[in-house]
Amino acid sequence: MKAEPPLLQALKGAVTKRPPIWLMRQAGRYLPEYRALREKTGSFLDLCYNPERAAEVTLQPIRRFDLDAAILFSDILVIPDAMGQPVRFEAGEGPVLEALADRAAIDALAPERVEAHLAPVYETVRLVKAGLPERVALIGFAGAPWTVATYMVEGGSSRDFARTKGWAAADSEGFAALLAKIEAATLRHLIAQVRAGAQVLQIFDSWAGALDEVFFEDLVIAPTKRIVEAMRKAAPDVPIIGFPKACGLLYERYAAETGVDAVSLDPSVPLDWAASTLQGRVAVQGNLDPVLLLAGGETMRSRVARILAALGSGPFVFNLGHGVLPPTPPEHVAELVALVREGKAA
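The structure corresponding to this sequence follows.
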C-alpha cells in the first residue's frame, strides 16, 4: 500500500519525519517563468480561466522547488464572478467589482451557475493532478463567505470595511442572505474541485481580523462550520485548512468550533501559544513572515529554526504567514525549502 503524501499525513494528525512545506502564492510574480507566461495571456482572470496555462503556472514552483503540495492557481473572487457579479483586476488597484447596493442585487446572485462558469477551473485541477508526482498533494481552495462578501459589498479592497460591517450591523437579515448565497456557491466550488482531483482544501478568511468577537462568531465561525460539515458528508477523507488571518486569540475558538483539520497561522501568532493551545486540537500551518523570506539571510534562517523548534514535534505544515511577496528572490525560496528539508531547529 502506497503511503499518503506527507501533507495529508500531517493534516490528519501525524507527526511526520520532517514537516511538509508549501507556500501561499508559491505560483506568482516572483518567478520569471510565471511573468513570461502572464505576458502572453491577457488579464489575470483570463489566466485563471485558461486550463492549460493555469495548470502550467500551478506546476512551475513544484518543478523549481520540489515542494510537498501544489495549490491551484485561481482566485477567491471567481465566486462572485460565477454568481453574476463581474470581477476585473486593474493594474495597481487590484480587484474591481460593481458594489452590491441592496437586497435586489443579492437576490440576483445565482450560486447554481458556479459549476458551469468555473468549468475551466476544474479542468485545471484535472490537468494539474495528472502532472503531479504521487507524493505531492493538490490543494484546492476558496475564500470564506465573510472575506468574499467584503469585496462584493465594498466593490474591491478596503481598509476599514465600513460598508460591509455597517450592512451587517444595520440589516443582519439582508447580510445573512448574502452570506448564504456565497456559502452555497463556495460549497459547490469546493465539491467540484474535489471531484476533479483536489486532495486538500484551504478556506481563506483573509479579513477575519477586522471583526469583533460577536461578528467573528456570526460571520466567520458559523458559515465556516456549515461548509466544513457539508464537506464532511461530500468528501469525508479530504482535510480542510482554515486561515482566519489576524484573528488573534480567536484562533482558539476557530479551531475548536469550525471543525477544520488545521489552522494556518499569520506571523503575529506566538509560537509557544500555538503549540500549547492549538496544536493539541488541530494541525497547525505557518507562519514565517513573508518579509523575512524576501530579506533572506541570517534573520530568515534563525526564524525558520525557531518555528521548527516550537511546532515540529506536533502535526505541522511549514508555510508562510501569508503569501510570497512579488519581489522575493527565487533563491531565497530554494534556501527556505532546503532548511525545512534539513529540519534544523534552534
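The longest strand covers residues 137-143.
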